[in-house]
Structure formats: structure tokens, C-alpha cells
Write a structure and sequence with these properties.
Layout (H helix, E strand, L loop, with lengths): L8 H9 L9 H15 L6 H8 L16 H13 L10
Helix pairs in contact: 2-3, 2-4
Length: 94
């Protein structure tokens, strides 16, 4: 679990790899979910989530605004939100 203010890309991947249905997911689903979670929750350009966003192999289309509803990526995104979002505290020091 992240001990910093926000999770790193590796911490998110590690968590997703521990979820029950990860064997049904492909790399694209994982990258997409991390990208949208980082996009929605980053605390600025110096945050771990912003770094994860920049390092992502996923590149959305010009009018894409998130994971497709009821997709595998959407399920993984929800897992990230439930696990990491409650502990995000932007603007505080560790």
C-alpha cells in the first residue's frame, strides 16, 4: 500500500495484480485503468499519479473521457478508486 500521498504506478499495478479477476484482463485494460485513475486523481505535476499518467503506455483518443462503461478497464478503475482514493490527501506533507 502507498505510504506517500498518492500511489506510484508500480503500487497500482501490484494492487491490480492481486485482484481476483486479473487473469481475465489484458495489458491494455490495466494501462487504461491506471491512466484514467491517474488523470482523475493526480494532485499536480509533482505527484506520483501525474508521473504514472505521463509514463502510461495508454493513449486515449481525442474525444475519450474515461473508461468505457461496463468494460474490464472500468472494473479495474473502480478497484483503484476503492483502494486508493480514500487515502489521497493532496497538499499535505508525508
Amino acid at each position: 500500500m502507498a505510504t506517500n500521498l498518492d500511489p506510484t504506478r508500480d503500487e497500482m499495478r501490484e494492487y491490480l495484480n492481486s485482484t481476483p479477476f486479473i487473469h481475465e484482463c489484458d495489458e491494455f485494460d490495466i494501462e487504461e485503468s491506471i491512466y484514467w485513475f491517474a488523470s482523475d486523481y493526480h494532485g499536480g505535476q509533482w505527484s506520483n499519479l501525474y508521473a504514472a499518467l505521463c509514463a502510461s503506455d495508454y493513449s486515449p483518443g481525442p474525444i475519450t473521457t474515461g473508461c468505457e462503461p461496463d468494460s474490464v478497464a472500468s472494473y479495474l478503475y473502480d478497484e483503484l478508486v476503492q483502494h486508493f482514493a480514500p487515502s489521497l490527501r493532496f497538499g499535505e506533507t508525508a
